[in-house]
Specification:
Blueprint: H1 2-30, H2 47-54, H3 56-88, H4 92-107, H5 110-123, H6 130-154, H7 159-166, H8 171-182, H9 184-200, H10 203-208, H11 216-222, H12 230-272
Length: about 270
């Protein structure tokens, strides 16, 4: 029975991989199609990439998407990190209440959050545009940063900060030199999640933007009713950028891990001598 189970599990895994990655491969292949057809590959061509680069709407969409994602990630990471550190030192009841409130934006459907933001901006008579879109992205990114950092803070030795201050470090120096390095993996994870959520968002962005400020998802949505292979080219560029980012991140992480291993081995060797 075990060989049959392994064969069945292997087939199931192969089907799952095909189901997940076939659309991505299909998009990349047809972004180089010389014809406008999305079902028949007529030949290799980069015409749709050239058309994408000459399309002002797409280029603006890419610029706004990257700019808002970067700013929202930086701001939400700073606010989320400071909030999480503050909560770790707060009273248990206050901490529990804030954590429950922090989960509301993640539990709410995006459409509810989007309508709430639309009504909020309308009530304050704020013209929707770049700033409202940026505020909306920062708002829904902060909870993910806090949620990523809190487990690291729970596992952190509370005596580290006290020991640093006993040795003469100021509270700010303790925060920068002791606490933040210990929770850095959680901060990086929260920042990556925030960037992904901001880069990918459509529903909240659609309700919070205006004045011609559109991100990639809104641009693609407005072009859905007509056949435009430039969308495939745009998707291919996004896929390549994300893949390169993941490769760079993993390479840097592997280099840092090997560096730490060498440092630990050197310290053990010195202690042995």
């Amino acid at each position: 029975m075990k060989p049959k189970k392994r064969i069945f599990g292997g087939i199931l895994m192969i089907l799952l991989v095909i189901f997940l990655y076939a659309p991505i491969v299909y998009t990349i292949v047809f972004s180089f199609n010389s014809s406008k057809s999305l079902t028949k590959f007529a030949g290799f061509s980069t015409r749709w990439f050239e058309k994408m680069l000459n399309d002002r709407t797409m280029i603006d969409g890419i610029k706004y998407t990257i700019l808002i994602a970067v700013i929202a990630t930086i701001v939400s990471t700073i606010i989320g990190t400071l909030t999480a550190i503050g909560l770790s030192k707060s009273h248990r009841i206050l901490k529990s209440c804030v954590e429950q409130v922090n989960q509301l934006p993640m539990m709410n459907p995006d459409i509810v959050t989007a309508i709430g933001l639309l009504m909020f901006f309308s009530a304050l008579h704020i013209n929707k545009g770049f700033m409202t879109l940026l505020i909306a992205h920062i708002m829904f990114c902060i909870p993910y940063v806090i949620l990523s950092i809190m487990p690291k803070l729970r596992s952190l030795d509370p005596n580290l900060a006290e020991a640093a201050m006993d040795l003469g470090a100021t509270p700010m120096r303790t925060l920068v030199s002791v606490i933040i390095p210990q929770i850095m993996p959680g901060i990086i994870s929260g920042a990556l999640i925030a960037f992904t959520m901001s880069f990918d968002d459509f529903v909240i962005s659609y309700f919070a933007t205006g004045n011609g400020v559109n991100n990639i998802s809104i641009v693609v949505y407005t072009m859905r009713k007509r056949t435009n292979p430039s969308i495939n080219a745009l998707s291919t560029v996004v896929i390549v950028l994300i893949t390169l980012g993941l490769i760079i991140y993993n390479v840097i992480s592997a280099i840092n891990a090997k560096r730490r291993e060498r440092e630990e081995a050197r310290l053990r060797a010195e202690m042995t001598d």
